[in-house]
Specification:
Layout: H1 10-21, H2 25-44, H3 52-66
Length: 78
């Protein structure tokens, strides 16, 4: 039975982040599933509708490329 992404605690998210920082693609996939709708909705109300999907994808590509630079504890990942 899949986990409901909306039920994840900040602690669970931080564990996924730490695993992602070590290159765990499955953990990053879980982060993606947790945040994609939120990111999509945010972008949707900020830009032309034709650009929303591309920009949402760009956000996650950049997060993956830079996740090792994230410093847990300084700011919440979410």
């Amino acid at each position: 039975m899949p986990h409901d992404p909306s039920k994840r605690t900040e602690e669970a998210i931080q564990k996924l982040v730490l695993s992602s920082q070590k290159g765990d693609q499955d953990a990053f996939s879980d982060l993606y599933e947790h945040f994609v709708d939120l990111v999509y909705r945010y972008i949707y109300f900020k830009v032309d509708a034709r650009d929303v999907e591309d920009l949402t994808e760009t956000v996650f590509v950049k997060v993956w490329a830079n996740i090792r630079q994230y410093k847990p504890g300084k700011y919440n990942f979410s």
